[in-house]
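To: structure subgroup
Subject: Chain for Friday's discussion

All,

I'm putting the inputs and outputs inline so they're searchable in the archive.
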Amino acid sequence: MSCALHFVAFNTCTHPRGFFLEAPRLLSLAGQLGTAGSLARPAGADTAHPAGARVGLRAPRTPDASRLQNMNFPYLWLELLLPLVAALDFNYHHQEGMEAFLKTVAQNYSSITHLHSIGKSVKGRNLWVLVVGRFPKEHRIGIPEFKYVANMHGDETVGRELLLHLIDYLVTNDGKDPEITNLINSTRIHIMPSMNPDGFEAVKKPDCYYSIGRENYNRYDLNRNFPDAFEYNNVSRQPETLAVMKWLKTETFVLSANLHGGALVASYPFDNGVQATGALSSRSLTPDDDVFQYLAHTYASRNPNMKKGDECKNKMNFPNGVTNGYSWYPLQGGMQDYNYIWAQCFEITLELSCCKYPREEKLPSFWNNNKASLIEYIKQVHLGVKGQVFDQNGNPLPNVIVEVQDRKHICPYRTNKYGEYYLLLLPGSYIINVTVPGRDPHLTKVIIPEKSQNFSALKKDILLPFQGQLDSIPVSNPSCPMIPLYINSPSHSPATKPSLFLFLVTLLHIFFK
């Protein structure tokens, strides 16, 4: 059945590339071409869809013959209009094309998507984020927030295109693929295809190693532009960086990954370090190192090239496609460390291509190699335990410290304004320490089962044995100051202080990463 005939029968149509169009949108497009009876169908327009194109149908049903006889000409024009709907191909999409695709998705899948800009680049380009979820416009208690960010280095382009295809895959498989449907039901997924649109547009001659466009328009490397917990990072904060920092304050992000290019590896925190985090042993580990290694392996093990660890010529070998960031090379002012320390969000860095800006014809293979990893990694936001902290009257308590004994963060993790907490943990037995200023610590034992819950962390609400209204919790400054929190830790390592060595390592990485 043609798309136009299917529209007459059912008031719906699905474009061959998966864009579902409803009656009001189709009628609006058709109406722009003229009113019923005023248009003649152009010669040769009987075959609207290209050879081999398939139209997705709803329940099979034969249209009523009388409806076909009374069909108005604008309906017939739908055959010509539908191919004009933006189709996502495997090409590089510049700002205008990317915006058109995101807006089309947001319009045609409005019940499960929300498109918004978190700010603007130096040149005034929007920093778009598309949210996918059953409740895309607002946080719901118990539903964790996940994010992917790509293209913070403008000349590292594969991640940008992968996230566009991930969006397409998620929205077109909702209600069809049980795994995707459950993921959308249980998770609020934020996708930023480009953090550095100015840099992407500045690339005039794509190169595998370095192109003008890595930095933003002001020539700042955005992955060296965040506050650092190990040393003072006295650089001018850029609009793109400030927009992300502000964004992180507005959502309760639990898990994240930022997508890069120039190597093939999953890198986990810390990127910088001191002796207390293991810097003298050429590594820098977080209190949640077991979880971070698991997360990195989860992604790398499902990418057939990344897991080999030696696919990039003249590059380092990474066993199983995984590395600690500091072990690879020290990095000051990186985004993943900032997420973990100040935003309570576990983030890893995914290097997805040996060549920073590969040829377009290679994009389908990158998608095929990364699709399973991208989906599986999102599912890890449901690791561990989650819940709310209440007083004895059932009032949720914000800004309460909720930490696991023996893995305390230098900036303690706290409940959000709904009294929620999310702790990513592997299976095992843990003691949760809940701390309210002026009260004795409240200890709760939890056992994370070996078999994970069905798209949900273990739910454990905590009832504290006292009364405390929302506005009575004495919190002078719930957030940690954005200063080098580790600088006064025992044996501050000289290896991470500003030095010629660090400068040379960073410079070499820029050109040969």
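Points worth raising on Friday:
The CA atoms of residues 115 and 130 lie 4 Å apart.
DSSP finds 14 helices and 17 strands in the chain.

D.
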